[in-house]
Design goal:
With 147 residues, the protein is of the alpha+beta class. The chain contains two helices and ten strands, in the order αββββββββββα.
């Protein structure tokens, strides 16, 4: 009896993971950021946050209010800078946020040694605040994307 229940739960869990992966891939293919109830999944595509976040990691971020972002938080934002214009960047807030004329401004930087400071961003660019790595989903994405 216990084995049957465990098998059913395993199948249900696998189905949920597959649905999440398909939803994420479909949303990405359509050019949008996967979101579910204010939570976003992002895949790390550069080494700018190593060793905290590695290339290929899938992270979960949550949409938060501007005043909930503090120094040392990791956030994902949409860049308006040069070659990264329009792309999502995940970096750490390195100074206390400033509020100017009712708009919050953040100074970010990657964790990698020698990473330069980013141009300051505003709250309107912020997609979410880092919650955690999604190790299992990251492994599934890695397996799917290997030739």
């Amino acid at each position: 009896m216990f084995k049957k229940i465990l098998n059913v739960l395993s199948v249900v869990f696998l189905i949920i993971v597959v649905i999440i992966v398909i939803f994420s891939l479909t949303t990405r293919i359509m050019g949008n950021t996967p979101s579910l109830f204010g939570y976003y999944m992002f895949r790390v595509s550069s080494d700018s946050m190593e060793p905290t976040l590695m290339v290929g990691d899938v992270i979960l971020s949550k949409a938060v209010d501007a005043d909930e972002i503090k120094k040392d938080d990791i956030i994902t934002y949409q860049s308006k800078d040069g070659s990264m214009y329009g792309r999502e960047v995940t970096h750490r807030v390195v100074l206390e946020p400033e509020e100017k004329n009712g708009t919050y401004h953040y100074q970010t930087q990657g964790d990698a040694s020698g990473a330069p400071l980013d141009k300051p961003i505003t709250y309107e660019q912020v997609r979410g605040k880092y919650i955690r790595k999604l190790t299992l989903i990251g492994k599934i994405f890695g397996f799917i994307s290997k030739p």
